Amino acid sequence: MELHEHGALKPLVVSVTKACELLGDKNRSCLYAEIKRGRLVAIKDGTKTLITFDSIERYIANLQRRIDSEPASLASPESRRKRKLFHQRRSRKRAVA
To answer: Choosing a second label site near 16 at 20 to 30 A (CA), which of 29, 32, 33, 65?
Structure first.
């Protein structure tokens, strides 16, 4: 185990449940999707899946970079709401067709 800047021990790996908690209560299927996309690193210990703590830290850092690089107009709550409505309407049209 390594030390954090503030002196606490940093785990090398965490369980899927703990990883979900660390990522803001992300659900398990989203977590596995991120593993499949290569954004998180998973290892197996027998039947147990463990997530590397370093990959969780990198994942969070990359999220912050995406937020920082996103134009302010795209980051505003109003813009997010408009994009969400657009995608909902588009998926409904596809479902009807």
So the answer is: 65
